[in-house]
Design goal:
The protein is α+β, with helices and mostly antiparallel strands. The chain has 2 domains: 193 residues, Beta-galactosidase, Chain A, domain 5; 361 residues, Glycosyltransferase. Helix 3 packs antiparallel against helix 14. The longest helix has 21 residues.
């Protein structure tokens, strides 16, 4: 049975990633890309579906683990009565090979160790043909099936029951290296790797990137590690940013709300871009903008909410019946049927992100504004369409208030592109349509009796996504309507002190079962508290939320409050993005209370904005953000 989700740590090379358990087992790895079929899939079944264990033979051994500073080089220290060993796990960066390195180093005494490797290509369903190949290195082992091959080097492995294992002892001062390298089966195996050199180069690569980080004083360590995780989920070649490294980790244990997040959602990628730019990583903007141009090139009517890492459009959803699912949470899905949905809010998220990049000094490209003009043409023609909403509701399309507010935000940023940067566009048309959208929202998306914005037009339900209304500047965080919305959200959606996205009992999503509190929404609430002056409430909630990070700083999608277990896909980019936003808002609130000028917040608007205030308060604040099915 796989470990608790929080017991895993990520290693990655910015092409793909592996999850290493605190028992020494790599239980999830897709090669050579995040969205490739898995080579190890014990996470979604059991060890027979593929894993790579390196650990002391003493089952009572204890361990602690940490990353080398500012990297994804994981060091696990094992302690036994016989002595102490250190296992260093990493995926080397920068050479476009697909390697996993595992170095065992003796610290003290003599420790008996065990290695057990079970290669299962194609999501744990394919047992490869395995043979010894000493001409490719001492003890070299090659496994091949269909298009995939791996070569394993290290201690001599012995075959038994479709697994390969080795027993060896490590004495103080000893170093034993193991490597696994993926390659296309129709090519020759890659040459052996210099492990010491690649460890040093990988540490240097990550530390150089991290040296540009500009984290706030408050929650600085949490922000810094979150930014590193966002970078680890960004594909180096394409600049596509995946929503998570995994598929089908459940929103409810034993349930069926299990989705594949190894793809690029426009909204998540847009918001990740904002966070990286604001914290010292402006160079990432150009790569992501190029990805966006390639992905949505063509008719704006064909724009999707999500794409593959290289901009692939057909992400057909399938189930892998031979995998039992994480702790029997079936089905296991690959692909994601939500790629066919219409979600109006993504236009707002993209427009906000590109506007923020321009405001923050990211160099303009020849095609960036042309792209935005094309998107706005589609918005002009489709602004009043019902959609599936930010949470990718699989029930009937509806008029979601949040989606319509993000349409407003798209128009607002288009107007400001003309006003602030003298770009060419039909500003009068955009201003008129912006006001028309606002009037519609205030007429149909606001419950005057309860003093709250609503989940959908004409309903009495609320949705945690309404917390974004102040983030994108539609309404000020102090506005009575925003405060009333917060009160309604607190009344309806708090579950053991944390927020769920919406009331699943309403039946709006067309799915069975329920879900656990969604971390992103609770971070948004902490952000709203900070923006509206509830600093103590913001820090109290933030302290609780960052306390759910595991021992290496990772967060998944949701939390099972009664146990503290992580739930859903991991590491979840949106959770870490929302953490960064909340920390920024708290820092800004603290700076304001001390009379200091704080950092500019994502999406923050300016006094020359021509948008109509929703109240006597200045309706200008920040940017945007989500999960997926």
């Amino acid at each position: 049975m796989p470990l608790a989700i929080e017991d895993y740590a990520l290693i990655g090379d910015c092409h793909t990633a592996a999850l290493v358990g605190n028992n020494g087992s790599i239980d999830w790895l897709c090669l050579p890309r995040f969205d490739s079929p898995s080579t190890f899939a014990a996470l979604l079944g059991d060890e027979s579906n593929g894993r790579w264990l390196v650990a002391p033979t003493d089952t009572a051994a204890t361990c602690t683990r940490k990353y080398v500073d500012d990297t994804f080089v994981l060091v696990t220290t094992w302690r036994t009565p016989m002595g102490e060993v250190e296992v260093t796990d990493l995926m080397p960066t920068g050479d476009r090979r697909a390697d996993v390195l595992r170095r065992v180093r003796g610290i003290s005494g003599t420790v008996p160790m065990s290695a057990d490797i079970r290669i299962r290509f194609e999501y744990g369903t394919t047992i490869p043909w395995v043979r010894q190949k000493p001409d490719h290195g001492e003890n070299a082992l090659i496994a091949i099936a269909g298009p995939d091959a791996v070569i394993i080097r290290g201690p001599k492995l012995t075959a038994a029951d479709h697994a390969h294992s080795a027993q060896f002892e490590v004495t103080e001062g000893d170093t034993i290296d193991m490597s696994l390298t993926w390659y296309p089966s129709y090519r020759q195996p890659p040459a052996p790797i210099d492990v010491s050199t690649r460890i040093d180069e990988t540490v240097a690569w990550w530390q150089e990137w991290a040296s540009h980080s500009d984290a706030p004083a408050t929650y600085g360590e949490e922000v810094h590690r979150s930014l590193l995780l966002l970078r680890a989920l960004t594909h180096e070649d394409t600049s596509g940013i995946v929503a998570a490294a995994t598929t089908s980790l459940p929103e409810q244990f034993g349930g069926s709300r299990n989705w594949d997040y190894r793809y690029v959602w426009l909204r998540d990628a847009s918001m990740t871009l904002q966070a990286l730019i604001l914290h010292g990583f402006a160079n990432e903007a150009a790569g992501w903008r190029s990805w966006l141009l390639r992905a949505i090139a063509g008719d704006p009517a064909d724009v999707q909410i999500m794409y593959g890492l290289s901009g692939e459009r057909y992400l057909l959803e399938n189930t892998i019946d031979k995998l039992s699912g994480y702790r029997s949470s079936a089905p296991v899905r690959t692909g994601n049927g939500a790629f066919t949905q219409y979600q109006g809010d993504v236009f707002g998220e993209v427009m906000v992100a590109l506007h923020d990049a321009r405001e923050l000094g990211v160099e303009e490209s020849a095609d960036s504004w042309a792209l935005q003009r094309a998107l706005m043409q589609y918005v002009e023609n489709n602004w009043d369409r019902p959609d599936n909403g930010i949470w990718e509701i699989r029930g009937p399309e509806q008029h979601f208030t949040h989606s319509r507010v993000m349409i407003w935000a798209a128009l607002d940023r288009a107007v400001r592109g003309v006003q602030q940067f003298h770009l060419d566009g039909p500003i009068e048309k955009w201003m008129a349509l912006r006001e028309k959208v606002r009037t519609e929202i205030e007429t149909h998306g606001f419950d005057a009796d309860r003093n709250t914005y609503t989940q959908t037009y004409g309903s009495h339900e609320v949705d945690a996504s309404l917390l974004q209304l102040s983030q994108v500047g539609y309404v000020d965080a102090h506005d009575p309507r925003m405060l009333g919305t917060v009160k309604a959200i607190e009344q309806d959606l708090l579950k053991d002190g944390l927020l769920v996205r919406y009331r699943t009992e309403s039946g709006i999503d067309g799915l069975t079962g329920t879900e656990n509190p969604f971390l992103t929404c609770s971070f948004w609430l902490a952000e709203q508290y900070a923006r509206s002056g509830r600093i103590d409430d913001a820090t109290d909630l933030m302290d609780r939320l960052v306390g759910y990070r595991n021992d290496v700083g990772m967060l998944s999608e949701e939390i099972e409050v009664s146990t503290g277990h992580h739930v859903g896909n991991t590491p979840q980019a949106l959770s870490h993005l929302a953490l960064v936003r909340a920390a920024d808002a708290i820092q800004a609130a603290l700076d304001h209370s001390r009379g200091n000028r704080g950092r500019r917040l994502a999406g923050q608007t300016h006094p020359h904005d021509a948008s109509k205030p929703a109240s006597d308060h200045d309706p200008r604040s920040e940017s945007s953000g989500v999960t997926h099915t």
